[in-house]
Amino acid sequence: MKKVLTAVVVFFVLGMGSLFAGGGDEAGRSSDGRVAGPITVLTNRTDLVDTLFADYARRFNQIYPDVQVNFEAMTDYSGIVKIRMNTKDYGDVLLIPDGVTPPQLGDFFEPLGPTAEMAKKYLMPTEQAYQGTTYGIPVSVNANGIVYNKRIFREAGITELPNTPEGFLEALEAIKANTDAIPYYTNYASGWALTQWEAHRSSVAGDPDFVNSLAHTDAPFAPGEPHYIVYKLMYDIVARGLAEADPTTTDWESSKARLGNGEIATMVLGSWAIPQIQALADDPSDVGYMPFPYNNNGIVSAASGGDYKLAVNIHSKNKPAALAWLYWFVEESGFAKETGGIPPVVGGEVPESLQAFADLGVNFVSNNPAPAGEEGWVDEIDREGEIGLWEPNFKARIIEAAFGARNETFDQIMADLNEDWKAARAVVTP
Amino acid sequence: MKPIKREVPMLGTASYKVQRRILIGTFLLAPLALLFVFTLLPVLNMFYYSLLEWKGLGDNTRFVGLGNYSRIFSNPEYFSVLTVSLYYLLGTFLQLALALFFATLISYGVRFREFFKGVMFFPFLMNGVAIGFIFLYFYRPDGTLDSFLRLIGAGDAVRYWLRNPGLINISLAATSVWRYMGFNFVIFLGAIQSIPGEIYDAAAIDGANKWQQFLYIIYPSIKRIVQLNLILAINGAISVFEIPYIMTGGNNGSRTFVIQTVETAFKYNKFGLASAMAVVLFFIVLLVTGMQNLFFKKEDQ
């Protein structure tokens, strides 16, 4: 019995010892003052973690040879990391998951510097900031628009890119009449692809303060409002039979190749999707990118914004090494270019895929930070009312109504959303 | 060499009964600790969370008492999704009937019985996500099902299996039947095979046919197992999640109570409300199981 007890005690002591052994170099610097120690980097790019990211680690080690970089990639990134953030163990460098409100940033992430100071060097330092302090830098800046197949547009006889919803529908009608391609592919089954439409509220509004203004309206889904215009187009595409026959069985992975080779003509996606589709296309130059078809007195706007923001865990034991990785990643890695986005540093080169936007004179709109005291209001109303601006739920509902699976009209759905918004706003805002 | 002293202090001097208790207790320690840490503790925590308003991140909880419950019960919308479970409930009866049928058939001895056993049980071994994807291909237009129907000349029966709101839950319930039938089948088969062969021989001498053998020998001997399977299957039907979540994300009218709970927690960050919904589901399952037990007890008398 005693022996057993001793064994158990020894086992636990050894176990605890090995736990602490993992802690590593507390100071994060080796004796000669160099940046050192192991860091864990969390990422959502399961597809790149063993290839591109391994290569980044090699290049990073040429400058910082004493830092061991480990990666952890997860598919449901935000969902998993948010749960892990209830412990102290959520990597050293990570992407700030969705759903962290601005006042919470300081509890979880290392402050990177005053926002005004950061703005001189990096793009979008306001997107994860609170009271003048920035906590995260975007890994890349995306524009939002519609990926289309240029060859199909030519074959359908479309010579000029449409800049009104009606013009876009006519173009899709022409594609349906003159080619074998599916005019628009919803990717309904994936869920997330439907949320790509949400960014275009700012493309339609053309106003960097539009999103903040949502906290001051009871009817953001009323006719004529940007949300109504954006989702009316979605509804019309499906209702007029311009989308795939059965949205419920769509497949994202194969849709990329199908757009590349002309079986599909258009999809609403962020600019991050362009290189992925080009990589699978028969002829990469067939893959084009157009802004959301809407104009304010001739001016076409495109919503743009930071991708996930890279940040450092406030509980990290190797902060110098973690910060070194963060700055190296946004400045030197070339990740943004690789993934078709605009590099997050001031004066970065606009990627070739977005050249068409520059040629069209498209006005890029990025959202302003919420006024002091109103931080997180729009997200809070969205959450409280279970609207899900960035969730697929009501978009799926619109598509279901459009293909006739629901006994409600588009206007009824919009009215219902307004009602929920109004009730939630009454709870959230003073 | 000295013989090894076999006496262990304490244990050796205690009576047999005490020794037995100590041994049983020690062996139970590990599973009980696991049960406590991974089942009881989370459930107790869930009850506690259901009294809070919590966004799932940080310590900013607010005690709201039964506020979450009154929100659920004053909103019939939350329960409307339970009707979706009826499809799975009907599927359950089909599933048990099929499992019992195949188990009986195979127990009578057929050619390649081991092979058929494997085929029947295989779906249960497969990952639920893989099954979701297989059946998405199966149900898509011009997919496996449509091709098969055309092959056998039943092209008229081709439908939009998931797009049609009247069919989607039937299609999903059928997938569920396909997946879980093997599990019931194996349990039934095990129970049937525990019936001694002499009884069949005796029945055969008395001139009983296969149907009579099933009715008067097999069914009474495995009645308990049928009840167990029924309870498991009905509880599964109430808390169905995996298949509709993977295949349709709960869209197009296939949302179930558990999907709704998961969305409340992880999409809208209302962990308190979602915990309360989970507690409500817990009591629904408890209630149904209790009712079934009562029903079977009455039948026994």
UniProtKB/TrEMBL annotation, chain A:
SUPFAM superfamilies membership: Periplasmic binding protein-like II
Domain of life: Bacteria
GO cellular component, one term: periplasmic space
Keywords attached to this entry: Cell membrane, Lipoprotein, Membrane, Palmitate, Signal, Transport
PROSITE patterns: SBP_BACTERIAL_1
Subcellular localization(s) per the UniProt record: Periplasm
Family named by the database record: Belongs to the bacterial solute-binding protein 1 family.
PANTHER family in the record: ARABINOSE-BINDING PROTEIN-RELATED (PTHR43649), POLYGALACTURONAN_RHAMNOGALACTURONAN-BINDING PROTEIN YTCQ (PTHR43649:SF33)
Name of the protein this chain belongs to: Sugar ABC transporter substrate-binding protein
Organism: Spirochaeta lutea
Lineage: Bacteria, Pseudomonadati, Spirochaetota, Spirochaetia, Spirochaetales
